[in-house]
Design goal:
heterodimer; A: alpha+beta; Ubiquitin-like (UB roll); DNA polymerase, domain 1; 2 domains; 5-stranded mixed β-sheet; 5 helices; 5 strands; B: alpha+beta; Aldehyde Oxidoreductase, domain 4; Aldehyde Oxidoreductase, domain 3; 7-stranded mixed β-sheet; 25% helix; 26% strand
Chain lengths: 162, 785
């Protein structure tokens, strides 16, 4: 089948999609968007998290055909069009929250969503929001630091712009 | 800032570049990783690429009567189906003992063993083709328990004895005895006032790296193969792959693809040979990506262990003797079992002075999943047991458990039970003092309860009733680098040249960057040693000499050391160039800020001007000091390169009604010799501590009659961010004069003591004995085994 949808603001089309394929597979193998990761492909690890019509989902659990005419935003679409990193992305680099980095794309989308909804989350808010994203390298402490840092930077930059 | 130096110690120049050693510059791959643009092994793609997949045995022990691939071959979209009969070269491979068939031959020895492989145009085509392969099995009784393994006359052999002469005896892969002092005799036992005995069990832990086993094999015009792969050691992969393909090593070229974590699970081969065989057969690029389920069958795990310990001590708490036996289940194939046994035996007394020791460590062949390397490597299992013993002994003596440990702690100059002197700082007592001195976390506030703070958390299982707090301590000892006479050298190539008017250093090694941050450290070393700003890291491949394995906490020591040596050689050649050209007779030269500087005469010349069009390109090998094998009967010998120590304090809340545990805080103190990159060092300690926490309370591959029952992240649990507490870390930097920059390997030590500290805290909260990990709810509520 053919699937037409919006990926990171661009109209895209995937051909010869087998009906059993996931959105994750289609993004990675057919559309040149391998940023979303294939760590468990059963909805347990969160590494494949993308926005679907603005809501974070595990793209491994979404059938490719389900995104027909819908909007998908992946980790590749977090940076601004000029390529500047989103604050969450920069904070992950700065705080040492990236080791192997395989969980990073999913955590970035999930953290990005958290800060959109709740710009000043408590530590427990962060833990709750990210509890569906497994990381095996960091022990999460630097990920906590990164989200706190991104939150602080977002708040101070919005204060400045006001 | 530079230190005063002379020609003689030009080798030892250190300059304080902010992004040099001791700084925390950002990872060179960090931006790519947060953009989603870093190419992991499962992201590889090639025109005309096929998908490879393996058929795996549903049985743990069986004879293969027949394999019929005829229907699979005819399936549309299938380009190759292969069994062991189609292998052009050697049929067996292995890390230490070549006992594992690349594809099963005649016999199945573990659940999930690969029998046939398929290459097809789509993963689903490959799956359907696999389903059409007909295998007839004669199911055999499994050999899975210690009793069965040790009685092959009754229960049979996992490998027939005539197949592996010289390697195995019965179903024993490897054993190591260790006797020190007087051993443990009746006379020695009589010297003790108190005797503590315990039987302990450690479950099978999985590395659970997130990036699944994967890679792309591309057939080359010269008849060879180019393999893009996630591994821990490119060269040892090649050594094992090439003979199976019937190719000389120089026709099998490996390039490291992005690695999504490793933790020991990528030391053995997984899909490498299969992808290369299919690429050879079809003449097309072949990609293999394991699913998470296949990953659980596709790599070795941490050895489950049964440990029996008996300690004797005097009334005032001094250890008199230890008699110990450690039985490790090695599973179907040897993997790294022999080295794991060596570690368990030689480190099994812990960081304590024990005058009289009798130890036996053994790894068995069985029809359980193969076990091999995982972070901590034999020292983890022992640490759980000896630390439980220390707590029991302290309780028996009415002593503070930290004080008891401190009284017996090794220090610099102590003699290990192997007879090896600890000839570097060993601040065991101080590490314990430091974790104990940290402020304790706040008591649970049950009046303003946030359920996310308590056991059960978002499951809303409690409102704070039935929750008890406990505090526990533990400390461990780990070796750094490969031991027992193995020369695990590393190679680095450094090229210094002028690009765009600036001096640029290029560092080329075969080191597997698996997330640990070695690439960051290589840049720091080059900046420090060569005084340049710009450093590029060449992709890791087999064009340069071996870097050894990214394991055993060894890469910063070994490949970092090789980069340092290569930089020093480049620096010496640069200075020689200056002497020749300018007739310098200074003996106080260094490279700082892109310039050659004399401490007495100031700036002499920019490196770029001195170098001009010349490129200095040198390769150096770094060998650690030699070690020797442990004596087979006594375990004596200078077997380890370096020791490393970490201590933990765990604070837990236990819901004693539901058997749920929340680790409230997990504090660590570790001596790292020199923190080359403090941010990464802390990250390693926290990550290692968390894997130890996982082993303490949740992580176990459940195996029944050789069959894996929980091969998924639904059923094999690793700690989430809600399970993981704040982890304060104290880093000590007491230099080891034998190591580059005085550094000490960091990665593994925190994985050791974390587990026993958490369990000690649970024991303190509940009063239960808890002699096995992971501790499950039924162990706390008394409703299970």
């Amino acid at each position: 089948m053919r699937v037409t949808f919006t990926a990171n603001g661009r109209e895209v089309e995937a051909d010869d999609v087998w009906e059993g394929e996931s959105l994750l597979f289609m993004l990675r193998e057919r559309l040149g968007l391998p940023g979303s990761k294939n760590a468990c492909e059963q909805g347990e690890c969160g590494s494949c998290t993308v926005y679907l019509d603005g809501a974070p989902v595990c793209s491994c659990l979404v059938a490719a055909g389900q995104v027909q005419d819908r909007e998908v935003r992946t980790v590749e679409g977090l940076a601004d069009p000029e390529g500047g990193l989103d604050e969450v992305q920069q904070a992950f680099v700065d705080a040492g929250a990236v080791q192997c980095g395989f969980c990073t794309p999913g955590l970035l989308v999930q953290s990005h969503d958290l800060l959109e909804r709740n710009p000043q989350p408590s530590d427990n808010d962060i833990r709750e929001a990210l509890s569906g994203n497994l990381c095996r390298c960091t022990g999460y402490e630097k990920i906590m630091d990164a989200v706190r840092l991104a939150s602080a930077r977002k708040c101070s930059s919005s204060e400045v712009s006001q | 800032m530079s230190t005063i130096r002379t020609e003689k110690n030009l080798q030892n120049i250190t300059t304080a570049h902010p992004d040099g050693i001791g700084g925390s510059p950002l990872r060179p791959d960090g931006i790519l990783k947060v953009r989603g643009e870093f190419a992991y092994s499962s992201d590889m793609w090639h025109e005309n690429m096929l998908w490879g997949m393996a058929l795996r045995s549903p049985h743990a022990h069986a004879r293969i009567l027949s394999v019929d691939i005829s229907e699979a071959v005819k399936h549309p979209g299938v380009e190759a189906v292969m069994t062991h009969e189609d292998i052009p070269g050697a049929k067996y491979y292995g890390l230490e003992i070549k006992d594992q068939p690349a594809l099963a031959m005649g016999k199945i020895r573990y659940h999930g063993e690969a029998i046939a492989i398929v290459a097809a145009d789509h993963p689903e085509t490959a799956r359907r083709a696999l389903a059409k392969i007909k295998v007839e099995y004669e199911i055999l009784p499994t050999i899975t328990t210690e009793e069965q393994c040790l009685d092959p006359e009754t229960y049979g052999y996992v490998h027939e004895p005539d197949e592996y002469k010289g390697h195995a005896s019965g179903n024993v892969v490897h054993s190591q005895k260790l006797i020190s002092g007087l051993g443990v005799t009746d006379e020695v036992r009589a010297l003790a006032d108190v005797v503590i005995k315990g039987d302990y069990v450690v479950g099978m832990q999985d590395q659970a790296f997130l990036g699944p086993e994967s890679g792309l094999a591309v057939p080359a015009e010269d008849g060879g193969v180019d393999l893009y792969i996630a591994t821990q050691w490119l060269h040892v992969d090649r050594e094992q792959i090439a003979p199976v393909l019937g190719l000389p090593e120089n026709k099998v070229r490996l390039t490291l693809a992005g690695v999504g974590g490793a933790f020991g699970g990528r030391e053995d081969l997984s899909m490498q040979i299969h992808a290369c065989l299919l690429a050879q057969r079809t003449g097309k690029p072949v990609k293999i990506v394991y699913s998470r389920e296949e990953s659980f069958f596709g790599h070795v795990h941490r050895h489950p262990a049964k440990l029996t310990y008996e300690h004797g001590a005097t009334r005032d708490g001094k250890l008199v003797y230890c008699d110990a036996r450690i039985v490790l289940d090695g599973g179907a194939y040897a993997s790294a079992s022999p080295a794991v046994v060596g570690n368990a035996a030689s480190l099994g007394m812990g960081p304590y002075e024990v005058p009289n020791v009798n130890m036996l460590a053994v790894a068995l062949y069985s029809n359980n999943p193969s076990c091999g390397a995982m972070r901590g490597f034999g020292a983890v299992q022992a640490c759980f047991a000896y630390e439980a013993q220390m707590d029991k002994l302290a309780a028996e003596l009415g002593m503070d458990p930290v004080e008891l440990r401190q009284i017996n702690a090794v220090e610099q100059g102590s003699i290990m039970p192997t007879g090896q002197e600890i000839d570097a700082p060993a601040p065991v007592a101080d590490l314990l003092r430091r974790v104990k001195a940290l402020p304790l976390p706040q008591e649970l506030d049950t009046t303003h309860l946030d359920v996310r703070d308590i056991p059960g958390a978002l499951s809303n299982t409690s409102h704070g009733e039935g929750i008890v707090r406990g505090v526990g301590y533990a400390v461990g000892i780990k070796n750094v680098g490969f031991s027992e006479g193995f020369d695990d050298y590393s190679t680095a190539r450094v090229r210094l040249e002028v690009i765009g008017g600036e001096p640029v250093a290029m560092v080329h090694t075969a080191m597997a960057e698996v997330g640990q941050g070695g690439v960051t450290v290589h840049g720091q070393i080059a900046r420090t040693e060569l005084g340049v700003e710009q450093v590029t890291i060449h992709p890791a491949n087999t064009e340069v000499g071996s870097a050894g394995s990214t394991s055993a906490s060894r890469q910063t020591y070994m490949t970092g050391g090789a980069v340092k040596l290569a930089c020093e050689a480049v620096r010496n050649e640069l200075v020689a160039l200056g002497r020749k050209r300018y007739g310098w007779d200074y003996n106080d030269l260094s490279l700082v800020g892109g310039k050659v500087v004399s401490a007495s005469a100031g700036v002499l010349v920019p490196i770029a001007d001195l170098l001009g069009d010349t490129a200095i390109d040198l390769t150096r090998e770094h060998h650690h000091r030699p070690t020797v094998p442990f004596d087979k009967e006594t375990g004596q010998g200078f077997g380890h390169v370096q020791y490393t120590f970490c201590a933990h304090r765990a604070v837990v809340d236990v819901d004693v009604e539901l058997g749920l545990v929340k680790v409230v805080e997990l504090a660590a103190a570790q001596d790292v010799g020199k923190a080359l990159n403090p941010l990464s060092v802390v990250g390693q300690i926290q990550g290692g501590s968390t894997q130890g926490l996982g082993l303490a309370v949740m992580e176990e591959i459940v195996v029944k009659d050789g069959k894996v029952r929980n091969p998924s992240f639904t059923d094999y649990l690793i700690p989430t961010i809600l399970d993981t507490p704040p982890m304060p870390v104290e880093v000590l930097e007491l230099a080891d004069e034998h190591a580059p920059y005085g550094l000490r390997g960091v990665g593994e030590a925190p994985t050791l003591s974390s587990t026993p500290a958490v369990v000690a805290a649970i024991r303190a909260a509940t009063g239960l004995a808890l002699n096995r990990v992971p501790v499950r709810p039924e162990h706390l509520t008394g409703t299970g085994e």
